[in-house]
Amino acid sequence: MAEITASLVKELRELTGLGMMECKKALSETEGDIKKAEELLRIKSGAKASKAASRVTAEGVVGVHTAGNVAAMVEVNCETDFVAKNDDFKAFANQIAAIIADKNPADVAALAALACGEGTVESTRQALVQKIGENMSIRRFTRVASDAQVASYVHGVKIGVLVDYQGGDVQLGKDLAMHIAASKPQAVTRDQVSAEAIETERKVAAGRAAESGKPADIVAKMVEGAVHKYLAEVTLLSQAFVKGDGKQTVEQLLASQKASVKAFSMYVVGEGIEKKVDDFAAEVAAMTKA
């Protein structure tokens, strides 16, 4: 039997895109014959998608596609940051964004049934799961068809922004999208912030102010001041423009170019997903024993 070396395992993994332990096991079963091991893995990987479907996908990328005044943004998740850097995985996300922009599906289920390559979006996803060896899912998407202009920005692969704006130029759109990615506003204007969020902030401010021991009228002013500050921090128009000197607000920037923001969308990969905490030492120990 041929020795199962690390380089042999690496070569098989590059050929199949599957996990290290799977490749090592296949080589052991085929007595180090890499061609037979590749065939074995291709047979076994047919069930890969269904076996991986229960695993948490909290990593991933944001794919964006813009065509004129239509833009789409999609979050595609995977299990590890390693796969999030995979070129095939990133290309898949951008391909899906282009399909969304073109076809305007109603939801993720409708998107899954659309044509993609030689099959559908879903069959393409399953094939990629089989190739890479990790579960992956299309979590959410948004599409903007503006009657004016739309700008997009992706920070790395983890934060994506679409901005529907009017007036100004292309550079203004890019600057607004970058600002949103950096400052993460919750709404364009103060009246768009949810009443629940404001009430929560008011309760927190009231609790802090009450501990000051100051008169009730002063406490009331402290609470209103805290809420005012909170709204300035979470609304786009009130924020200090990140590329400026800290004195100009986004609202003032827009006014200087006779422009306005109608709406924006921002995705942060994995936001709201409960991530699995791995015991890396235990994983290495298990691999060593295997």
Walk me through this protein's architecture:
- Helix 2 (20-29) crosses helix 3 (34-44).
- This protein has 13 helices and eight strands.
- It is elongated, with a radius of gyration of 25 Å.
- Mean pLDDT is 87; it is low at 47-51.
- It has helices at residues 6-16, 20-29, 34-44, 48-52, 81-84, 87-103, 108-112, 121-132, 170-183, 195-210, 216-234, 250-256, 280-289, and strands at 59-67, 70-78, 115-116, 119-120, 136-145, 149-155, 159-166, 260-268.
- Strands 1-2-5 form a three-stranded antiparallel sheet.
- With 290 residues, it is an alpha+beta fold.
- Strand 1 and strand 2 (70-78) form a beta hairpin.
Percent range of helical residues? 40-55%
Mean pLDDT: 87
Largest sheet: 3 strands, antiparallel
| Individual helix count | 13
C-alpha Rg, in Å?
Answer: 25 Å
Element pattern in H and E:
HHHHEEHHHEEHEEEHHHHEH
Q: How many DSSP-defined strands?
A: 8
The end-to-end distance, rounded to whole angstroms, is 18 Å
Strand order of the largest sheet: 1-2-5
Report the structural category: alpha+beta
Shape: elongated
Strand content: 15-25%
Low-pLDDT regions = 47-51
What can be said about this structure in brief?
The protein is of the alpha+beta class and 290 residues long. It is built from 13 helices and 8 strands. The strands form 3 sheets. Strands 1-2-5 form a 3-stranded antiparallel β-sheet. Strands 6-7-8 form a 3-stranded antiparallel β-sheet, with helices on one face.
